[in-house]
């Protein structure tokens, strides 16, 4: 019996000692980490301008100097346009290693920038994160051009704000483009004009709708040709 009591006392002493060690363990220290914010337009062709009214997907990320994703704080997407050169916030989302902003319906050319708010730790189990901004992403936008063809006649509509405005047509001569004719839209923005076609071979054309007022120029190329047994045709890219 005495041996049992001695063993029990030893076990109790060991348990007390273990408890004291756990209580006296040092707390986690808060660190201050710098951050990097990135922004991208993943599904756009950089060689082709977006058209007025299109939806654009915007993605991004916030990472810390430790290499991990940042989930504290918020990220705001700003748009700088000709009508608002100071810039304006258009969406705010929680910080993340994979930012997904709401789809952006574009109305004019703009420059986009993502701004991370930073974060101040509220306990010793959190870290501080410094604010950061992304590199700007340019988003050129053209007016909306709807163009159809029937034979060698082209018709359609250009919006917004393109009433009685020019549509420049150039013909390719050798390796150079030379002015052929300038047509104008109606007060509604609609247009209709006919291009000539050769008896043999093809003639190549370049059609341009000018920019301005927050838009970049819109441009396309095409060709006209003839069949012996059919009416002349136009092909527009």
Descriptive overview:
- With 237 residues, this protein is mainly β.
- It has two domains: 110 residues, Macroglobulin (MG2) domain (Immunoglobulin-like); 93 residues, Sandwich (Immunoglobulin-like), CATH 2.60.40.
- The protein has one helix and 22 strands.
- The strands form seven sheets. Strands 6, 7, 10, 12 and 13 form a five-stranded antiparallel beta sheet that branches. The protein has a five-stranded antiparallel beta sheet with strand order 18-17-20-21-22, with no helix packed on it. A three-stranded antiparallel beta sheet has the order 2-5-8, with no helix packed on it.
- β15 and β16 form a beta hairpin.
What key phrases describe this protein's structure?
about 240 residues; mainly beta; Immunoglobulin-like; 2 domains; about 50% strand; disordered N terminus; signal; Carboxypeptidase regulatory-like domain-containing protein
Characterize the biggest β-sheet: 5 strands, antiparallel
CATH class of the largest domain: Mainly Beta
The proportion of residues in beta strands is over 45%
CATH topology of the largest domain: Immunoglobulin-like
Which structural class do the helices and strands define?
mainly beta
Give the SSE order as H and E letters: HEEEEEEEEEEEEEEEEEEEEEE
Corresponding CATH architecture of the largest domain: Sandwich
The CATH homologous superfamily of the largest domain is named Macroglobulin (MG2) domain
Gross morphology? elongated
End-to-end C-alpha gap? 100 Å
Number of domains: 2
Give the radius of gyration. Answer: 32 Å
Task: Flag low-confidence runs.
Answer: 1-25
């Amino acid at each position: 019996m005495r041996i049992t009591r001695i063993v029990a006392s030893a076990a109790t002493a060991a348990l007390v000692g273990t408890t004291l060690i756990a209580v006296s363990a040092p707390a986690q220290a808060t660190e201050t980490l710098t951050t990097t914010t990135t922004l991208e337009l993943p599904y756009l062709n950089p060689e082709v301008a977006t058209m007025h009214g299109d939806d654009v997907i915007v993605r991004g990320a916030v990472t810390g100097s430790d290499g991990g994703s940042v989930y504290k704080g918020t990220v705001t997407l700003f748009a700088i346009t000709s009508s608002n050169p100071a810039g304006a916030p258009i969406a705010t989302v929680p910080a993340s290693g994979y930012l997904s902003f709401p789809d952006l319906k574009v109305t004019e050319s703009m420059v986009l920038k993502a701004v991370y708010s930073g974060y101040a730790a509220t306990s010793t189990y959190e870290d501080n994160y410094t604010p950061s901004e992304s590199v700007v992403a340019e988003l050129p936008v053209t007016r909306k051009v709807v163009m159809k063809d029937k034979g060698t006649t082209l018709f359609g509509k250009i919006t917004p704000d393109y009433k009685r405005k020019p549509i420049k047509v150039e013909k390719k001569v050798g390796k150079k483009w030379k002015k052929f004719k300038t047509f104008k839209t109606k007060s509604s923005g609609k247009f209709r004009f006919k291009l000539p076609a050769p008896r043999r071979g093809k003639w190549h054309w370049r059609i341009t709708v000018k920019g301005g007022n927050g838009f970049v120029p819109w441009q396309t190329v095409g060709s006209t040709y003839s069949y012996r047994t059919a009416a002349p045709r136009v092909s527009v890219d």
